[in-house]
Amino acid sequence: MTQTPQTNVGELRRRGFIKLKAEDMYSIWVKTASCTLSSEQLRKLADITDKYARSYLLFTVRQNAVIPYVNSRDVDEVKEELSQVYLDLDRCGPIIRNINVCYEAKICPYAVTNSISLAEKLDNFFYDYTHLRHKTKLGVAGCKQDCITSRVLTDVGFVSDQRDGKTGYDAYVGGQLGSNPFVGIKMAELLSEEECVKFAQNYFELLENEGKEKERAANVIKRLGTERVKQELNKNLQERVTLKPISRTTSLTKNATDKLTLRLRATCGEVTSKQLRKIADIAERYGHGFVYFAVRCSPEIPGIDSQHLESIRNELQEADLQIMDKGIDNFVTCCFGADCTENIVEPRPLIRKIEKMTEELGLNNLDIKISAAGCPNACAIPHLSDIGLWGIVEPEVDVANCTGCELCVPVCRMKAIVMEDGIAVIDQEKCNYCNQCIVICPFDAIAEKRKGYTLIIGGREGGDIRLGEVIAEFLSEKEVLQFTEKCLRIMKDKKANVDTIINQVGIEKFKEMLAPGTK
Question: Is the residue at 16 inside a domain?
């Protein structure tokens, strides 16, 4: 496919091809079955990255795979090659995204339900659902630890639990991060799989009947109220859904909870084609023949016998891969850095400097989590990290250049821009510093006043969610590194992560420890 001036970027996006800033370059988002890829699929992805891209793959917090830097002329060929190993694209637009799910009960000793079974039912029933007004994210967790953090990463999240002799799924609605983070609200308890599917259908029907364009679950809750939404979603849960399921399964036939799961370090979610092939070989020879991708972008190989651990460690080292059994948790960034169309800062070089800093300090606590995003969309889940960062830019209107064209008004997601006497006026209290008004203005009437990083601390993922607290804005990279080093030294001294320290001393005391005089 040769790119021409008539190339429909929007249509390509809906198909799963996302435009990058680099000329004629796209990223291809690959849908994963239950957040896993087989060894055969990993090898195919390695071949594709070598043939059509830049010989590496990215794994995202959506638990899917992304092939960056594919030329527009090659996108159809890549799609054809993916189909050879039964891989499809994770499409964009008003559709259901790749469903987040954790391990099934045959692998995870903490699971109380088979989360894979429900995830497949939801995927099969609703994958081609076409009546949505905005993107929708679903998630299924096999226990109340909620390793996929569905309470904030999904519009509708089902979290398994056992209470009073009954096992089922609690349903949480409204989770989202980004510019307006919202922790999902529990709206049903201990549902069966069939009731979960009906609950999801009720949600989609509510959006179809009463939703507005670009609304996600959190917006609907804020507009209609929690009780009204809860009432609508719990209607007729005993009724069978009317959509026809497609038969498919990826479940194991044997129990493997006595086996090890190896987490591999993949800083910034990056894995080279050489590393992909090595991971595929090890999964095939020592594990179950597939790899799982965790929310923090690290590949995991389940089903490993402990007797093979050191042999595997040596094999991984041949491809510069490390088992994540020391240091801190995987460092997470958003996907494309400077080539993301909404990027403000390039977080990957910064996060690698911080990674080196943790190594030099000798930190060894896998409960410590650090992530950085390039803009307030916060794709790298900084709200859920001990130290989280995202790029921001403050816009300033040049009255002399403003023509009153109003292009900036609809692009502002925070509704922070209004026109007064034909001039754009920005409400700085509402502005989230996302840069989009600057990008859209064709007359340079909105310009950058200042740029830097937002620093957030104390986030916690899992079953007991806590969103981090912003403590500084418009930091330079030098200032970020200074704050980060101070924070890392506190964690090393206290032998705990920020979340634990805050629980012990309180947020205000911790801020005083981090930067005396901080309020």
Answer: yes
Residue 470 has pLDDT above 70, yes or no: yes
Domain membership flag for residue 46: yes
| DSSP secondary structure string for all residues of 394-409 | EEEE-TTT-----THH
Any domain includes 140:
yes
Please give the pLDDT value at position 255. Answer: 73
User: What is the C-alpha to C-alpha distance for residues 291 and 46, in angstroms, rounded to an integer?
Assistant: 14
CATH number of the domain residue 508 falls in = 3.30.413.10
Examine the pLDDT at 517 and tell me if it is beyond 70: no
Domain enclosing residue 190, as ranges: 108-233
- Tell me: do 117 and 81 sit in the same domain: no
Burial of 372 (0-12, 13-18, 19+ CB in 10 A): buried
CATH number of the domain within which 307 lies: 3.90.480.20
The pTM of this model reads 0.93
CB count, 10 Å around CB of 477? 15
CA angle 470, 334, 28 (to 5 degrees): 155
- Here the tokens at position 496 are 């705990």
- Total domain count, the chain: 3
CA-based nearest residue to 472, from 486, 489, 494, 454: 454
**Is residue 271 domain-shared with residue 375, that is, in the same domain?**
no
The rounded distance, in Å, linking the Cα atoms of 374 and 272 is 22
Q: What are the backbone angles phi and psi of residue 348, rounded to the nearest 5°?
A: -65, -45
Q: Check if the beta carbon of residue 165 is closer than 8 Å to that of residue 204.
A: no
- Residues 6 or more apart in contact with residue 265 via CB below 8 angstroms: 298, 321, 322, 323, 324, 327, 330
